[in-house]
Amino acid sequence: MINALRGMKDLLFDDARRYEHIVGTASAVARNYGFDFVETPILEETRLFKRSVGESSDIVGKEMYQFTDKGGNDVCLRPEGTAGVVRAFVQAKLDRQQGRKYRFFYYGPMFRYERPQKGRLRQFHQFGVESFGEAAVEEDYTLILMLAEIFDRLGIGYRVKINSLGCTACMPPYRKNLVGFLEGIAEELCPDCRRRIATNPIRVLDCKNESCQQLLEEAPKLNESLCEKCDRDFKRLQKLLDASGIDYEVDTHLVRGLDYYSGSAFEFVSDEIGAQSAIAGGGRYDRLVEFLEGRPTPGVGFAIGIERIMELVQMPEERREGWYLGAMDADSLDPILDLARRLRAQGKRVTVEYAPKGLKAHLKGADRAQARYCGVIGENERIRAAIWVKDLEAKEEKILPLETLVSDRVSPSD
Ligand code: HAM
Predict the structure, then answer these.
(1) CATH number given to 323-406
(2) Which residues are CB-contacts of 120 (< 8 A; sequence separation ≥ 6)?
(3) According to the model, what pLDDT value does residue 414 have?
(4) For the sheet containing 102-111, what is the strand order?
(5) How far does the centroid of ligand 1 lie from the alpha carbon of residue 270, in Å?
(6) CA-CA distance, 278 to 295, in Å (whole number)?
(7) Pocket test for ligand 1, best of 110, 118, 134, 269 (most atoms within 8 A of CB)
(8) What is the CATH architecture of 13-170+226-309?
């Protein structure tokens, strides 16, 4: 037997329904907020992610599904969605439409070669949004609001963490200050943190190691070193969140694992799913379009980890839907097929059993198909151009002329 690769999962039945429901709900919210669907390739040039997500990030440094294709190109499976959408944005020359706003949403598989564990897969799915051309911090607020609305609609509890990662004016002096502090405690930090002092000092702040965290309590705080503009934006964001009743905490150690962020950063976490508790993350990336050779364009976005919320989603009650049709003898199959075609043309869900069977077997089939109506034609019905119908919800049976079903009437029970 050939199994799926380690860290990759099939979505069957209930999981598939949950996936559809999450994507459907999030897409509907995104549309309400003025976002348009976008789809970009899963395979991209490796240098796209090196330049955007950053060479010093774990994602690029350790976790990429990277290979050389038959044409000798260095390619990789996307580890996240933002870089591809920004590439598409620049490629379509949308960066030249200065002053215009573009808002996109997407969903699909992402790939990271991590050690699989609960909540951490090698192929997982994200729902994400990216907003281009809007520099106002109100957009950051709107995206947090949108995430809250998506999770509320899905019946999922969450905590919101926010931080500001500063800009090119305030981040470099802060980083210098931080490196000075970290060098002073380097001996006591874990090997990962020691290495990061040189490569990516900001990421030291979110080390998961308990003893590192204790040492870092004294570290200089990013949000106390912001320039006037970043400070004003961060305070405004908090004020807007206060006014909208969204609870949040300022987490000065929230730095995100991707290098393209500046300004607001946020994460939604759940306390019900174990160690991998981040269910969504995002923030502002005002320099990313430039990193990918576009004209300077502000950007902000987020992504939800679909597998992480799969079990938390409160699913709507499943209802029987549409038709199951079957024949009792070989001669009745053609009128069944004809009826199926006509019902489907009316937009109805129809499953057909091709093998002639007795009534009891068909009723069982209709039950398995979760159909609302079971329609069966045997010799008696065929000669009268009629069909025997059972409404499996109302538990009523009737014999109806075929013509009444294919007229515009919605259900046989009216
Ligand atoms: P991220 O924080 O790397 O951000 O991923 C977003 C979410 O994807 C995480 O909060 C988590 O729920 C889920 N996730 C990440 N890795 C895994 C994994 N191995 N298995 C299962 N779920 C996982 C981004 O990817 C950014 N592109 C978000 C963004 C969009 N920022 C701006 N725009």
Answers:
(1) 3.40.50.800
(2) 7, 114, 276
(3) 47
(4) 36-37, 102-111, 123-132, 299-305, 278-284, 264-269, 159-164, 249-250
(5) 14
(6) 32
(7) 110
(8) 2-Layer Sandwich (3.30)
The three-state DSSP-derived secondary structure of 302-356 is EEEEHHHHHCCCCCCCCCCCCEEEEECCHHHHHHHHHHHHHHHHCCCCEEEECCC
Measure the CA dihedral 276/282/285/291, to 10°.
Answer: 50
Question: In the beta sheet, which residues pair with residue 75?
Answer: 45, 67
The CA distance from 1 to 6, in Å, is: 14
Q: Are 264 and 283 in contact (CB under 8 A)?
A: yes
Q: Where are the domains of the chain?
A: 13-170+226-309, 323-406
Question: How far apart are alpha carbons 339 and 318 in whole angstroms?
Answer: 26
pTM above 0.85, yes or no: yes
Report whether residue 57 contacts ligand 1, using a CB cutoff of 6 Å. Answer: no
- Nearest Cα to Cα of residue 394 among 381, 413, 369, 370: 413
Give the CB-side neighbour count of residue 126, counting CA atoms within 13 A: 26
- Residue 63 CB–ligand 1 contact under 6 Å: no
pLDDT tops 50 at residue 87: yes
Comparing CA positions, the residue from 36, 80, 73 lying closest to residue 57 is 80
Q: How many CA atoms lie within 13 A of 334 on its CB side?
A: 5
Lookup result for tokens 């930090």 = 189
Phi and psi at 407, nearest 5°, equal: -75, -170
Task: Read off φ and ψ for residue 12, nearest 5 degrees.
Answer: -120, 150
The strand pairing partners of 308, in sequence order, are: none
In whole numbers, what is the pLDDT of the chain averaged over residues?
95
Mean pLDDT of 145-166: 98
* Predicted confidence (pLDDT) at residue 408 exceeds the cutoff of 70: no
List the end-to-end C-alpha distance of the chain, in Å, as a whole number: 51
- Choose the residue to mutate in 308, 309, 313 for probing ligand 1, maximizing ligand atoms within 8 Å of C-beta: 308
Mean pLDDT, residues 353-374: 98
Name the strand (E) or helix (H) holding 229.
helix 228-244
Q: Under 8 Å CB-to-CB from 176, ≥6 apart: which residues?
A: none
Burial 180-190 (b: 16+ CB within 10 A, else e): ebbeebeeebe
Helical spans, DSSP H, in 245-293: 288-291
Q: Does 404 score more than 60 pLDDT?
A: yes
